[in-house]
């Protein structure tokens, strides 16, 4: 689907609704593509990552260690952002 920059200004909500439904929206300026709106990435929890690793054949200890490292990394980023 394509939309003009003017459409983007005037119909932002409708265009975002299309994106939420899974469609890409290409934004054009003077008939040339300048941007693309696309559905966002699905996020998953640390626990879900560990569960996926175990189901894929990883051992529970490794999955737990990876989960702990991800959590430490997240906490460090949050700490840095607050400084």
How would you describe what is shown here?
This protein has 83 residues and is α+β, with helices and mostly antiparallel strands. The chain folds into 2 domains: 2-37; 46-82. It is built from 4 helices and 3 strands, in the order βααββαα. A 3-stranded mixed sheet has the order 1-2-3. β2 (25-29) and β3 form a beta hairpin. The radius of gyration is 20 Å and the shape is elongated.
Question: Which class best fits the helix and strand makeup?
Answer: alpha+beta
Number of domains: 2
Order of H and E elements: EHHEEHH
Q: What is the assembly state of the chains in this entry?
A: single chain
Would you tell me the overall average pLDDT?
A: 83
> In one word, what is the shape?
elongated
- Biggest β-sheet: count, sense, barrel? 3 strands, mixed
Strand order of the largest sheet: 1-2-3
Low-confidence stretches: none
Strand elements, count: 3
Portion in strands? 15-25%
- CA-to-CA gap between the ends? 42 Å
Tally of helical runs:
4
**Proportion of residues in helical segments:** 55-70%
Rg (C-alpha, Å)? 20 Å
Defining traits:
83 residues, alpha+beta, 2 domains, three-stranded mixed beta sheet, 4 helices, 3 strands
Q: How would you sum up this structure in a few lines?
A:
The chain has helices spanning 5-10, 12-20, 46-55, 60-82, and strands spanning 2-4, 25-29, 32-37. By secondary structure, it is an alpha+beta fold.
């Amino acid at each position: 689907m394509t939309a003009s920059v003017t459409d983007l200004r005037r119909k932002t909500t409708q265009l975002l609704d299309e994106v939420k439904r899974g469609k890409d929206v290409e934004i054009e300026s003077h008939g040339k593509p300048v941007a693309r709106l696309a559905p966002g990435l699905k996020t998953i929890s640390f626990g879900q990552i560990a569960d996926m690793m175990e189901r894929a054949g990883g051992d529970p200890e490794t999955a737990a260690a990876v989960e702990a490292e991800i959590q430490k990394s997240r906490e460090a980023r949050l700490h840095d952002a607050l400084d």
